[in-house]
Design goal:
This protein is an alpha/beta fold. It is 41% helix and 13% strand. It has 13 helices and 14 strands. Bound molecules: pyridoxal-5'-phosphate. Pyridoxal-5'-phosphate binds next to loops.
Length: 397
């Protein structure tokens, strides 16, 4: 069989290849310290699991409405209105099997072939994949090292806007860097959006994975509710990555279109999983608080150990469960000029497995510093200590 030509444009998440390599190394009898994948090794809170069981026993096992069950849509609109100061009703919410489907449905709903779409690079690789797969032009914008964290390079972003630019993808609380925009930066983004008449996908997968301060959303700013679609997910906050539950939240016309795409693609999101989602939002929150406090301890331990490694520097992001240390000097000292041989050398000599900048999009011209991405969502604090001690020893050898 001959595959369709457009398949050549479809990208992938190369982090899964790192995972396969780490597993193969482990199967040979080696210890592996998994910092490569953004999955969570903590259980979903028991009240959510119980609610799913109950729903199954009560027969919630058939098809559900393609936009989601009204009770969950309502609960989510209410929840988001509180944290975002928005005015959504259930009609603004399309329940999805995870947050990820919102990316392709947003693009399919709003992007004509040839349209230019601004997207973060480094960034979640699915943006680039879906823009190009659907015939758009993926226009990357980058990040700079600021005083206490990475920041979007807004000057460079603005320069890339042309009359063909219609969409902006913003992943504030950013994977992989942990960057977040402050209020002044969000206001500047809102001005750019208004001036250039852009529609925005606000990928807020990590909105609630926050250890200090308060998350802010572009959608809270004047005039942004009509121009933004939020990507919401239960995956991270409630350790529900494998349940596949998320939502698109935005203007009714776009949400109806996204629901129509859902009807064509998967009919609906699993009914009893949606009922568990209502419990997640409205029930006891101690489970998600516990998840957050475990993640915070991991972050603190990982950052303090990374900072002791010669040739490595690292910010302390207040949100997400990723670290993006600069390893330029370490790679130079060890004689590596490219990422993959360095990554493999560290894996084989220490068992520490991570992704690098390479796994988050094609590097931008002029990018000289070298970065790793360490996810601490899937590794316990004791193992983090052990792993980073080994990495430090590797750096000193
Ligand atoms: N967006 C970003 C930036 C992510 O990092 C992820 C997952 O890692 C997702 C979206 C999708 O998450 P999910 O489909 O599990 O909700």
């Amino acid at each position: 069989m001959k595959l369709a030509a457009r398949i050549e444009k479809l990208g992938t998440e190369t982090a899964f290849a790192v995972s396969a390599e780490a597993r193969a190394f482990q199967n040979e009898g080696h210890t592996v310290y998994p910092f490569h994948l953004g999955d969570i090794n903590l259980p979903t809170p028991p009240n959510i699991i119980e609610a799913a069981y109950r729903a199954m026993r009560e027969g919630k096992t058939g098809y559900a409405p393609n936009a989601g069950i009204p009770e969950l849509r309502e609960a989510l609109a209410e929840d988001v209105n509180k944290s975002h100061r928005t005015h959504y009703t259930y009609k603004n919410v399309a329940i999805q099997p995870g947050g990820k489907p919102v990316i392709s449905k947003f693009i399919q709903a709003l992007m004509d072939p040839g349209t230019e779409v601004l997207y973060p690079n480094p960034g979640y690789p699915i943006y680039e994949s879906q823009i190009e797969f659907h015939g758009g032009v993926a226009v990357p914008y980058g990040f700079q090292q600021g005083v206490s964290n990475f920041q979007i390079d807004l000057d460079a972003m603005e320069k890339k806007i042309t009359p063909r630019t219609k969409l902006l993808i913003l992943n504030d609380l950013h994977n992989p860097t942990g960057a977040e925009a402050n209020l002044t930066e969000l206001e500047r983004i809102a001005t750019i959006v208004r001036e250039h008449d852009l529609s925005v996908l606000c990928d807020e997968a990590y909105f609630d994975i926050r250890y200090e301060g308060t998350s802010r959303s572009l959608v809270s700013l004047p005039g942004m509710e009509e121009r933004c679609v939020l990507l919401y997910t239960f995956s991270k906050k409630y350790a529900m990555t494998g349940w596949r539950l998320g939502a698109a939240i935005g203007p009714e016309k776009v949400i109806d279109t996204i629901s129509k795409l859902s009807l064509n693609d998967e009919s609906c999101t699993n009914h009893f999983v949606q009922i568990a989602g209502i419990e997640a939002l409205r029930g006891d929150q101690s489970g998600s608080k516990q998840i957050l406090s475990i993640l915070k301890e991991r972050r603190d331990v990982a950052v303090s150990l990374l900072k002791q490694i010669p040739g490595v520097s690292c910010y302390t992001p207040q949100a997400t469960f990723y670290l993006y240390p600069d390893v330029t000097e370490l790679m130079e000292r060890k004689g590596f000029t490219e990422y993959e041989s360095f990554r493999r050398d560290v894996l084989h000599k220490t068992g520490v497995s991570f992704c690098t900048r390479l796994h988050f999009g094609r590097a931008l011209p002029g990018e000289e510093r070298k970065y790793l991405r360490l996810a601490y969502s899937g590794i316990d604090v004791g193992k983090i200590r052990e792993a980073l001690e080994r990495f430090k020893q590797y750096a000193l050898d």
